[in-house]
Amino acid sequence: VQLQASGGGLVEAGASLRLSCVGSGFTLDYYTVGWFRQAPGKEREGVSCVSSWGGAPYYPDSVKGRFTISRDNGKNTFLLQMNALKPEDTAVYYCASDPVRYLSGYNLCHRSPRPGYWGQGTQVTVSS
Q: What's the pLDDT tens digit per position in 13-57?
């Protein structure tokens, strides 16, 4: 099981970025998936998670209305569209999933212990 994240970069405040995560070794359609981020000196936090069964995605207030998670099941991929980026969005972003099925988006983003499957991080830097 592998997750491969891509799409990070350096942008100015107010710009948009789209992150992509490709899965291999398992079918993402059947699992809850999500994006997490970790800024220097801060704990990793879930910023967008969505279930496999059509439940509402979870977003914390810090990104609600600006970030959108979506799936491209035909490509075994899920995406994070980030709009109106702010300097405080600067972090390493990770895609994740978990072998336990039927988690809600909220439960994956708050999973303890951490989700079981992780991609490598991709750096997002937003300049002011």
A: 999 999 999 999 999 999 999 999 999 999 999 999 999 988 899
Rounded-to-integer distance, Cα 128 and Cα 118, Å: 30
Q: Render pLDDT for 63-97 as a digit per residue (tens, 0 to 9).
A: 999 999 999 978 999 999 999 999 999 999 999 99
Q: Which residue has the tokens 């072998």?
A: 99
Q: What is the 3-state secondary structure (H, E, C) of the chain?
A: CEEEEECCEEEECCCCEEEEEEEECCCHHHCCEEEEEECCCCCCEEEEEECCCCCCCECCCCCCCCEEEEEEHHHCEEEEEECCCCHHHCEEEEEEECCCCCCCHHHHHCCCCCCCEEECCEEEEEEC
Phi, psi of 113 (to 5 degrees): -60, 180
CB 15 within 8 A of CB 85: yes
Q: Which residue in this structure is represented by tokens 């491209």?
A: 72
